Amino acid sequence: MQKTGILTTAEDIVHNQRSHYAPPFVDFARASDLLNALGYRRYNGVNDFVRLGPSDLPVMMICVKLSRLMHEFNVDGLLDIAGYIECWGIVKDIHPEED
C-alpha cells in the first residue's frame, strides 16, 4: 500500500471488512471488561482511578501502534492507527458521555 489513501482504506476496513470482529463498541467493551477484571484502571485527573471503558481501548491501541512505529516505520501501522481513530469515533457516537 502507498502512503496515500490510508484514511479511505481504514474507513473501508472498519465499516466493511471487520467481519471476524464484533462491532467496535462491543469489541472494546469486552476488552475493557477483561482489563478491569485484571485490575487495570485509568487516572481521571482528579486524584482518582476509574474503570476502563470502551473508549479507552482504541487510545491504548493507538499508543501501542505509535510505539511500534517508533521502532520501525511501516505503512500498515499508519493504517491501523487510522482504523483505531475511526473505531474511537464509532464508540463515542454510541456513548458520547463515556470518558
Describe the structure.
This protein is mainly alpha-helical. The chain has one domain. The chain is 62% helix and 6% strand. The protein has four helices and two strands, in the order ααββαα. Strands 1-2 form a two-stranded antiparallel sheet. Helix 1 packs across helix 4 and helix 3 runs antiparallel to helix 4.
List keywords for this structure.
mainly alpha; 6% strand; globular; single chain; two-stranded antiparallel ribbon; 2 strands; 99 residues
Count of the domains = 1
Give the overall shape.
globular
What is the H/E order? Answer: HHEEHH
Query: Kindly state the mean pLDDT as a whole number?
Result: 92
Strands of the biggest beta sheet: in what spatial order?
A: 1-2
The largest pleated sheet is described as: 2 strands, antiparallel
Brief rundown of the structure:
It is built from 4 helices and 2 strands.
What's the SSE blueprint?
Elements: H1 6-16, H2 24-37, E1 41-43, E2 49-51, H3 56-71, H4 75-94
Antiparallel strand pairs: 1-2
Helix pairs in contact: 1-4, 3-4
